Amino acid sequence: MVELSQGAFEVTRNGTAANLRASNVPVIDSFQFGGTTQVPATVSYSMKWQASGPFEKHGDATFSGSFAPARVEGSFSGRELGFSFSGTGAVNPNSSGGGYALLGHEANGKRLHP
Question: 81 lies in a domain?
Fold first, then answer.
């Protein structure tokens, strides 16, 4: 888990788009989850969501939210001494390429009373 800088995640005023950006975030690479060999590394990533349909309300006794299908595209990279990688990807729920993304807001436990 890493802490991101203020402003790394932004949502438009009307809630139809969101951006997440982080650049050269220091992390520890252990080559395998929980591995004993650990080296310093950095990662960078950028994700952009854009609502591609109407928002629909969902909820029950413990949850309420409003979600819309969304297009998302992103890029990522990582670097450590002697090794680096990068990539890009996108999901468009209106295409035949598969995958899905949602954009919205939720309130868990909103209607629970002690």
Answer: yes
* 3 lies in some domain: no
- Whether 15 is in a domain gets the answer yes
Provide CB contacts within 8 A for 87, sequence distance 6+: 75, 76, 77
* Sequence letter at residue 11: V
Convert the pLDDT of each residue in 33-56 to its tens digit: 878 889 999 999 999 999 999 999
Going by C-beta distance under 8 Å and a sequence separation of 6 or more, which residues neighbour residue 42?
A: 24, 25, 26, 27, 78, 79, 80
Domain that holds residue 24: 9-108
Name which of 88, 92, 89, 55 is nearest 70 in CA terms: 92
Instruction: Read off the pLDDT of each residue in 83-110 and give the average, rounded to a whole number.
Output: 83
